[in-house]
Amino acid sequence: MSVMDWPHDLLSLDDWINLPETPEYQVEVVEGVLVVAPRPMPFHQRVVARLAFLMDELLPDDYSALNEVEMVVSAAPLTVRVPDVLVAPSSLVETNPARFDAGDVRLVVEVLSDGTRRTDQVTKFSEYAEAGIEHYWIVDLDSPISMISYRLIEGDYENFGEFSGVAELEFAGSALTIDLTALTTRRAQRP
User: Is the pTM of the predicted complex or chain greater than 0.85?
Assistant: First the structure.
């Protein structure tokens, strides 16, 4: 696909839906503007896959964790993000939607990488808060691997804990214990 195949106007949701799939790139749209980046490196993908699996196993049955699915943050101007991990009601996940509305998402996790650090810590931080996503967790793979958990309080994210080693977290009244160092090792933490 050449650059000439990409749209030259601000995208609507219909435009987004009609774009060709591009498995070699990570594609999002921010305020109608297409944002294209290289796919994450294998190490990053391992962490995201393990984190989504582990969270899905630990969450209450009413919720499911998924990795790298589309989420409409804003319809106008259109902003569609593809979070590393999102948590939504299991009843909604079972309907197999093409994308999720941010209003239905309770938690988003982003794993920092060289190309996403500022976006994850600044831009998505404000977008997710404005969209009303209650929990936002950021995982930093720089040694020592760490996580910051934020919770939406009166429209702003407040720091609810910083962790390295083992993260003891709470979501929907359930405790979640995540061994952050096991996310990057050859053998993942077992629930």
Answer: yes
